[in-house]
Amino acid sequence: MAAALVTLTGLSVVGLAAGFVLALTAQTSADISQHVLVAVFATTLNLFAHSLMMFYLLGKGGAVKEAIAEHGLQGDYMSRVTRLRGPVFSRATVAMVLTMAASIVGASVDVQVMPPWPHGVAAAAAVVLNVYALWTEVVALLGTSRIVDEVNRRLIAVPVSTGD
To answer: Which has the higher per-residue pLDDT, 12 or 164?
Structure first.
């Protein structure tokens, strides 16, 4: 699941970057239409991917918390999970907000209510911040996976109580 989420998020960031490049190289209205098509699809995919990533990390944290509670494990597992996923929530949220803002401003450019430069600045910032958020998500996924492995190893070592 983690690999699929990284792939999905990575593809969305590549799509955002491709939309940005298409806008910079556009010379005809057909080129602009292609830019809009790619950017709208990439934006939708991006919002979906970051949201799924955050829910996945919440679920992993919940599973660790449940295992700790059920088996009385001692350790700083939950604080480590929280430290890993905290930056994901803030950075991915800001990346999503900036991506949405770039799209909304882009629509204003399309109907000639705004000049193109604010859209370009927001789009460039969104691409950069999405790369940073993706890196943060990969770090969190790898760290959380290590914690889950530690908990699983501890669970194997703990004798199972049958309640008799």
So the answer is: 12
List alpha helices for 26-115, DSSP H: 29-71, 77-110
* Two tokens, residue 80: 């480590």
The tokens of 144 are what?
């959380």
Find where tokens 């490049």 sit: 21
Residue 16 tokens read as 């955002």
Average pLDDT over all residues of the chain: 92
* The token pair that represents 162 in the structure block: 């049958």
53 close to 137: Cβ distance less than 8 angstroms: yes
Cα 8 from Cα 51, distance rounded (Å): 11
Write phi, then psi, for 158 (nearest 5 degrees): -85, 125
Q: Is residue 91 pLDDT above 60, yes or no?
A: yes
DSSP SS3 for 52: helix
Of 71, 52, 54, nearest in space to 154 by CA: 71
Q: Are 126 and 46 in contact (CB under 8 A)?
A: no
The pTM of the full predicted model, rounded to 2 decimals, is: 0.87
Question: How confident is the model over 107-114, as a mean pLDDT?
Answer: 93
8-state DSSP, 161? P
